[in-house]
Structures are given as structure tokens and as C-alpha cells.
Amino acid sequence: MESYRIRIVSAEAAPTTIEVVREFMGVGLRRAREVVQTNGVLLEYATAAEARRIVARFAEIDVQIEVEPTSRPRFAYAPEHAERGDQRIARLRVDGRDVAVDEGQLGRWEVDSLDAHLASLAKGRGQTHGSEDAARAHGSLVEAGWRREGLDLADSEIAIVEACSAREPALEDALREHPEDAQAHLVYGDWLQRQGDVRGQLVALQCEAARDPEGPSAAAEQALRREHASHLFGPLSTVAERVIESWSRGFVDAAFVGAESWSRATGGPLEVLDALLRLPVCARLQSLGLTKALAEHPELPATLMASPVAAQLRHLELGDRPDHPRQGARRLPEDRQATWEALWPHLSGLEQLTVRGYHPGLERMGRTALTRLELHLGRVTGSRPWSTDSPWLRADFSALEVLSLHLSGRSITAAMAQALFIRVPPVVPTLEVHLNHPEAELGGMIDAFLLHTGLDASVRTLDLRGAPFARDLHRAIPSVPEILYAAEPE
Q1: Are 198 and 274 within one domain?
Q2: How many domains does the chain have?
Q3: Which one of 36, 51, 71 terminates a domain?
Q4: Can you say whether the dihedral through the CA atoms of 463, 465, 469, 472 is positive or negative?
Q5: Helix (H, G, I), strand (E, B) or coil at 425
Q6: pTM for this structure?
Q7: Does 95 lie in the same domain as 58?
Q8: More confident residue, 426 or 126
Q9: Comparing C-alpha atoms, which of 370, 384, 444, 442 is closest to residue 416?
């Protein structure tokens, strides 16, 4: 399959250039700056459509890039091999006039990148032909030999994981419906063990570890994950520990794909996300977090919409966590908001949404079943984009039970309250509101906030333990039955 390698030829490390690099690679600031300063590779295996879009975008900021035709690696494997995804895999790479064939395990290759492959040619590990046609002919002969040996061919490592993993859709559907049902997981684990898939043993060990946390099963299941990393994680073997946050009963519960998820072997965070959503151990993923650069990636909505796993998510977290550089809230471009508008119906199973620092077209969500909304709004003020004519959040949050606002800055103004308008039916006082504002004296601004948002009649509990300067607001807000304050300093 023909593809393209895209490399920066010459560019200054200007903020605009670095931001565009982050946009396409989905990486952090440090990695983006490194790519610009070293004339590094933006994408290793871009499609023709991706290449055209990248060329046009960098032309807008007068940055010269180089587009080189190349070919994706081809892999050969035995679909019925007893070791399944842990088996030794053959790999073919054709790059211009250069051909290299090697062996390794999924996600564990001695030579990870094409640049390293080209360097290895000087050491006799590859072959350079007189023309590109001769190199392609050599590659075709290698593939024909693999087929004669009865091997199957694949264009990606994650495709091999999918082909070599035992799956039973009906049983997996039951686990998605009842992720806390230990017995259903054990039934599936028994079935997997009968098929010879080590994931069945992982289910049994994690279920036993949940019953007896101090027993030997906890250490045994960790050792099993290390030993069978190629089968369990495929191309993500080297980054799995940085991506996966929690497990239960043999399946991944929560994952966060951030800037540190990137590596030359796995590609950028978008490629990591695509592989993650296709891993069998993520078949009933409940919670997914995406760093800001990835959440703003133009290809993200398409990746999520193509995944049945994304459709079952119960918690989605968008934006950088506190250990990342803090960003103020800002809107997405209008075309990105329209794309998210098409995505929201696909995420109909969401019960909790956490947004840090910006919002991905939230006003276009329409009616939602969210019960918890957590907004980290950065250093808000009464200026734009808050003081807009149209509310910032116009979605229908009729099912909302908990609204958590994490603010910083010096004021909560009426204009900001209007901009944060949320449609919560003031019928039954059921809403629990958390206001976290460690810097400011909120004083009488909170009652103004509740009045402007229309929440004053809906709030059951106002939790101000994250706002240590708030005190004695019962008289100002008599409609709120319960107000929780931070403990007085000793």
C-alpha cells in the first residue's frame, strides 16, 4: 500500500509552527518543538488525502515540508499458531530502493523506525537495489514466499492481534451490559482458556485478586501481562503502562491517551488511540481520557465514530490534566464544532463528561443522558468568549445530577454566569453543584451565579469545600437546603 512520509524541511521554532505540528501529531509541546528544530518526521505513513491536507496547512504558515512516497510495512504470521499474538512475526519494509526483512514480536522490534532501518543497511541488515521497481519486485517475491509457507499477511500489527485473539461477541455484549458481574466474566474467561487464549487466565487471576488482594494472584497477573505483552497489547506493548490506568476482571476499565503516549514505534497519540480501541482487552472500556492536543485533532471524531468501543463509554475526559501546562478555556473552530455535533449521538452511553480548559462544541450536544458534568474552566473572566450573546452551554442536561465547576481567576461575573447557562428543569431540587475556586472570595457572587444560570431552584446541595474563602451564604441563598463549607483553618 503506497503511503507518504512527511518531514519538515526548514522552519523556525515559532509558536504558530509548533502549534500546527501539535495539531497533526497530537503530541506535547516539547516533542513538537523537537520535531521542528531537528527537521523531523511529522507522519511516517500518511495517506494521499492526509498528505494533501498537511501540505495545504503548512503552506498557510510558509513552512516548507517534504513529502516522500513510501510503503507501509507488511507482516506475515501464522493465524493458528499456539502462541497467538506472542509468536514471532516476519516483517517486510520497502522504502525507495531499499528492502529489509526481519523478525520480532508485536511491539518489540529491534529496529523500530524507517530512519533506523536505513541506518542499518550499512551494517548488512538490508538490501539496496538499483531501482525502486527492482525493490518492489523483491518485496513481491518475499510476500509470495510467505504465502507458499501458509502464512497470512497483514498491513498492521493491530490487525494481527485481532486475527489471533479468540472472541465471542455474545459474551462480550453481556460484559458490556454488566461490567460488575464477576460470574459473567469467569464464564467468558473459561471459554477463552478452552480456546487457548491467555486472556482467559488473565480474567481468572484478576477475579481472584479482587477477592483476595493480599494473595499471590495480584503478582501473578502482573507477571502474566509482562510475559504476554505482545498478545495483549500488540503495537502498544511499550506504551501500555503509560496509557492504561485501571483493570478489572481481565479487561481495561480506564485509559488516558496523552502526549507521553507517543513513540516512533507506535506513531502519534491518534494512532495509539486507534490501536487501543481495537485491542480485545479493551472490549468493554468504560472511561477514556484524551489530552488537549488529541482532543482537538481533526481526525479524532472519525476515529471515535468508527469504534464500537467508543459508543459504550460511560466517562469521557477531554483536555490536559493538572500536570500538563494549564490552558485557558477557548472555543473550537466552527468546522470542528460541527464535526463534534455529528459525534455526540455516537457517544449516547456517556454518563459523565469531564472537560478541561476548553469545550468541544458542547452547545451542540442536544439532549443528553449525562448525570455528571465536570468543567475545569481555567482563568475565567467577564470578557470574551464568556460575555457572548448565545449561552456557552445550550445542551439539554435534563438528567444532570452533579455539576462540578473548577475555576481560577479573580471573579465570577454575571456575564460569565449567563455564558454558562445550563438548561436544568427547575421542577424537583435534585442537582448537586460543586464550586472549586481556591483563590477568590466568592461572597455574594455565588447567589448571582445561581440566579443567572437558573439553578437556584434546582440545587439540592452546594459544595463549597473547594472554595475556602466562601463563608456564611445561607442567608443569601435560602433556597439551597444544604451548603458544605471548607473546614476553618486552625
Answers
A1: no
A2: 4
A3: 71
A4: positive
A5: coil
A6: 0.81
A7: no
A8: 126
A9: 384
